Amino acid sequence: MKKKERTKVLIADSSPFVCIMLTTALEKLDFEVVGRAKNGKEAIDKYMKLKPDIILVDAALKDVEGIKVTRVITSENASIVILMVAESADTPDTIVEAVKAGIAGYLRKPFSAKEIEARMSALKKR
Amino acid sequence: MEERKEKEVKILLVEDLEEHVLIIRDALERSRLRNRLFVTRDGEEAIDFLYNRGDYASENKYPKPDIILLDLRLPKLDGIEVLEQIKHEEKIKDIPVIVLTVSESDEDIIKAYEEGVKSYILKSAVIVQKTGKMEGLLDAIISLV
User: Which of A16, A51, A119, B27 could serve as a FRET partner for B75 with CA atoms 20 to 30 Å apart?
Assistant: First the structure.
């Protein structure tokens, strides 16, 4: 039987810790994390190269903001699912603007991801 | 290494559209996350469930959920009103809420954000666009909030 193709995810977040945490959580659920980007420009470049199905974008990417990244990518591919990773500092207006730019929704930090915390603490104890 | 049994995630889905209930139930049944799904069909029923009132009086049968999946367009009490009640009640205000909606209205987005929902997802991403590719998306969101 042909193996089902996994859903490809690109993670764009300036924090390596968040990238690792999201990667671990997503891979456990059988997603394929095809790439990570630490800034907006890299996110757009990697999107073009890797053609993921889902992109997780940090709203506060330093150079090209998350919303601009969304606009560039949705103008190229309207059916892509982009989820924004929001922080407490983000205002509701940022979210409204992001939805208008074409995001499918947002996830808000901090992530609880209890599974990840448990694994991290297990590693520390080794 | 000792195998740790994954904890079951108790999910309360507040959704009036039967078709959407079926799609979500189906996706969660095939999910890698161990879960137990409870469904209420309108806002009042959701509040009764959360307060263990009326038909939902039994705390054993209807336990406090770990996650609430909330539609916004609901009969009797709409989703934003349900959200306000949840967030102003000490016993249940910390339950993470994921809004699953078709609404792109500024007012709903702002209100939901101000009430502290952990996630706001357009149904088009997880239900309407159900191409198979997006099947695991709901799992991912549930496991992260």
Answer: B27
